[in-house]
Amino acid sequence: MTAVTGKDNRGANQARAKARRLALQALYQWDLSGTDLKLIEQQFRESEEFPGVDDEYFQELLHQVPARLDTVEAGLAGAMQIPWAELDPVERAVLRLASYELQARPDIPYRVVINEAVNLAKKFGAEQAHKFVNGVLDQAARRLRPHEQAK
Question: How many Å apart are CA 145 and CA 141, to the nearest integer?
């Protein structure tokens, strides 16, 4: 067994961050257009942005968020006062993706999930979207990951 170096870990983190970014864009497209996920996936795989993406993670996010949409959205119940349908589509996609990660990926620390979601909201969302996303996810993480909050 070989040790993972900091550089290797950094590369894996960058590949996963890129997978999140592309999955966010793909989920946004799916939400607005209703296009079949397999067609969206193919489109993203063929784009020049895809090399360097954590392929498995991209596929997981793209397919599991819609497959578990009711659970994903319910995971943020009580943390936001705005109905899902009234959210900006970018914020909706960011929150769905992060809610999935908080619920289904305990291997990813909640702080990483929130930080990545805030970065995506800063990059793609409205001017103050990142503050809203941070507040919602911080509240949700307390409920969904109480064991991490205690540390």
Answer: 5
Supply angle C-alpha 130, 65, 93, rounded to 5.
Answer: 25
- Residue 139's pLDDT band (cuts 50, 70, 90): very high
The answer to whether 30 touches 40, Cβ cutoff 8 Å, is yes
pLDDT on residue 150: 64
For residues 124 and 24, is the Cβ–Cβ distance under 8 A? yes
User: Which whole-number Å values give the CA distances from 35 to 60, 64, 97, 98, 107, in the listed order?
Assistant: 17, 16, 18, 22, 31
Q: CA 148, CA 15: separation in Å to the nearest integer?
A: 25
Structure tokens at 146: 């109480």
All domains in the chain, ordered by first residue: 6-149 (1.10.940.10)
37-45 vs 6-33: helix axis angle to the nearest 10?
Answer: 140
User: How far apart are the C-alpha atoms of 126 and 118, rounded to whole Å?
Assistant: 12
What whole-number distance in Å separates Cα of residue 6 and Cα of residue 44?
A: 29
